[in-house]
Amino acid sequence: MSQQTDSPLEEGQKPRQTPKALARLKSLVQKVEEGGGAERVKAQKARGKFTARERIHYLLDEGSFQETDLLVRTRAADFGLKDKDIPADGVITGFGSISGREVAVYSQDFTVLGGSLGLAHAAKITKIMDLAMSSRVPVIGILDSGGARIQEGVDSLDGYAQIFYRNTMASGVIPQISVILGPCAGGAVYSPALTDFVFMVEGISHMFVTGPDVVKAATGEEISFEALGGSSVHASKSGVCHFVAKSEPDCFRQVRELLSYLPQSRWERPPRIANPDPVRRKTPLLETLCNLDPKKPYRVHHILWQIADEHKFFEVQESYARNMVTGFIRLGGDVVGVIANNPGHFAGALDINASDKSARFIRFLNSFNIPILTLVDVPGYWPGLDQEHGGIIRHGAKILHAYSEATVPKISVILRKAYGGAYIAMSSKYLKSDFNFAFPCAEIAVMGPQGAIEILFSKELAAAKTDAEKKSLRDKLIKDYSDKFASPYPAAASGSVDEVIEPADLRLKIIRALRLLKNKRLPGQNLLSRNIPL
Fold first, then answer.
1. pTM (2 decimals)?
2. Structural domain includes residue 78
3. Count of Cβ atoms closer than 10 Å to residue 257 Cβ
4. Is 422 a catalytic site residue?
5. Which of 96, 147, 186, 230 is flagged as catalytic?
6. Catalytic status, residue 187
7. Looking at 153, 421, 451, 464, which residue is catalytic?
8. Does the residue 524 lie in any domain?
9. Comparing C-alpha atoms, which of 283, 422, 411, 232 is closest to residue 343?
10. What's the gap between Cα 217 and its chain centre?
11. Based on the structure, what is the number of domains in the chain?
12. Is residue 267 part of a domain?
């Protein structure tokens, strides 16, 4: 029998001193975690910004962050880089959890060489993106960088290319979220543009291809950072930004809320939650829509708040193309993506920006197994020289393509007006919508009654002898046309509308349809289509 030897560490016994190897590791880790040093951290705080590590800890569940590549350093030696201390090469990468669900994350550190991107910096990002892809989890990038690291020349540009390639390969496979919390300039802006959602914070987030100095040198225009590429510009004019926050904590709260509606990847369904809101809850307030003047505007948000579980609606791109509303609701505990005409802006008509906004969102929903609910109140396409010359034909075709391509459950509800080509585009029956409902007050026709009778009865109207006689004839013709064509019943008779429903039953009808369609397409079985920027 062999004699048992004493363990060098008895239970409860502490070593007298820290071993040299462990002490060295702790020293290295501490040095790296200090970032660019106290002075640069102080300057970061003076700008009203958190540090890269603070941002990760605000975003993720407490204690869940596991860092990767902490000790990576650049191999570049030119222009004094060899003698510089560049902790973590200016970017923190790793993984953690949000509400108990795993995510991959990277956060650029502006206190280290301005967060500039070199080849090692890019390699850390691409490595965590590859890990996210293979693990089938979302990836969140927190960007705060001066751009390419000039000292590394073409290597830094190649680093961006490697990131862009992975953004594209991950598109439609895992959710990708970009959080802009500082400058994002030049080629760096194209990574966020390739991701699914972009967040910005008022006053500290800026995105532009060429900065104010270059603009002035090239065109003579003097413009501020905020006016050129601030959050309000990208949220309302360019459409690059999907969400704007008042502060960094508010931004991270929004990111967490968004993720609560998304699946981990294309191989999963979005998370279902217990639903405290009765499925059979009536929505009698919607009956007032049938008594509303067809020309009177209203915000479609009121419809969404009425039908959604607990009256909650999470809007996407709230300030951009406001004639089209997009976002997420839950119905019976299940996540649903919403596309809705908004008569409160441009009468809800389709234009270039509304078409782009809705088409890309539809493609995102289709990629990630999220059913599509379309609320229709559309008088047509917005007319005008700018629209025609801007390519409304080409842009309008995108929404037709997106709906036709989508194989997730599709339900549409015609609330009021649905005229002409815009009726077709808004998930009509022959774009393979699964259920098409209509309110009793719905008007479905080639065009509005007034425009139609001006064409159909132009001779009769011209023959009227007095204005009073013309008005009387016009009113009668409009009523006859409306009764015959501008109602839901001819469409219901032909099968273009499946059911004319009472507004009070809208919530129940949609939920029952969604439950029937829940196995229409299993996660991961759809043909993979990238969510290309539109």
1. 0.91
2. yes
3. 14
4. yes
5. 186
6. yes
7. 421
8. no
9. 422
10. 35
11. 3
12. no
